[in-house]
Design brief:
By secondary structure, the chain is mainly alpha-helical. The protein is built from 5 helices and no strands.
Length: 101
């Protein structure tokens, strides 16, 4: 049981991480319990699952763009270089996360 729980926590941290190194704040025992609850009790109904998956993807995008912008000191051009993506994509991600919050 404990090994399986540890494996699940590591998998969640990997999904939520935007860096090469896992930080402790990505684990459920840290301040991330709200995000980790997204992975608990997956709906069995397909339509509910699709909606849940969309919610998880939105959270991941939000975490990613926030980490990217923070790492770039709020500089969009620097963020696009760090993320290896066009500035327009950074703006799109920002716009999407603003709508979902």
């Amino acid at each position: 049981g404990n090994i399986r729980e540890l494996e699940n926590e590591i998998e969640k941290a990997i999904l939520l991480s935007t860096e090469d190194i896992l930080r402790t704040d990505l684990f459920a025992s840290s301040n991330n319990s709200a995000d980790s609850s997204l992975f608990e009790k997956l709906p069995l109904d397909w339509d509910e699952y699709l909606s849940h998956r969309q919610n998880v993807n939105s959270k991941l995008d939000s975490n990613y763009v926030k980490a990217l912008i923070d790492s770039a000191d709020s500089n969009i051009q620097k963020a696009s270089k760090l993320g290896n993506l066009p500035r327009s994509q950074v703006y799109r991600l920002l716009k999407r996360t603003e709508k979902s919050e």
